[in-house]
What does this fold into?
Amino acid sequence: MTTIAVLGAGKIGEALLSGLLDGGRPAGDLLFTEKHAKRSAELTGRYGVEGVSVGEAAKRADVLVVAVKPQDIEPLLDQLVGDLAPGTLVVSLCAGLPTALFERRLPAGTPVVRVMPNTPMLVGEAMSAISAGRHAGEEHLDLVEELLGTVGKVVRVPESQQDAVTALSGSGPAYFFYLVEAMIDAGILLGIPRELAGSLIIQSAVGAATMLAEGGQHPVILREAVTSPAGTTIMAIRELEKHGVRAALLAAIEAARDRSVELGNAHEKG
It folds into this structure.
């Protein structure tokens, strides 16, 4: 059996552990690292998975899933380099960090797969995009697809597209949350109690997402079906266009892409 170690048991790391267990992985085939002893004990009690040091994880695991913040990657790589077993697959969930960074810092020939997940992993509905490094083959991508398939959907993309993916789907849930927040505020402005406004908007979002996911129709077609001549919806759409909402979204996603590139460049000489 493959032993998998999750390095960094924050929300995303814990969600992956939970998904792997729900998908049938035995707790004995999983490990995790967590620098806070109390948090480590809580996770072991909750899932029955052993918490270990980074060095021990490197020695024992066949797959290391790196789920730390990008700014914490350098000290983690320093801890890994001396203990990493030959052939260990390294799976990076770190936003903006290229596979080349890991390949430079880890033993020659280490297979690396870069992943951009998103926070719906917490409810088993992640969108994860994966890319192979120079030494990762089809068998490594297949394994990563299998692992991440327990917490959502997985697509393969060239690594050159990962910064754009980070801006679109990695940060994407935040854009929807922002929009829902604004719509709830609008409901309050119109005299609807906050709790009721939240219920109305959240269910509308769930229904709209289901129509997009299952109906197979382009979003323009779906929007036009709601937009009657001289009706309420077209008046709202006119205001959105007048205030440049579409242009603002384009600019925002470009800015997120640029920041992802900056995060990778910050470690270019690491």
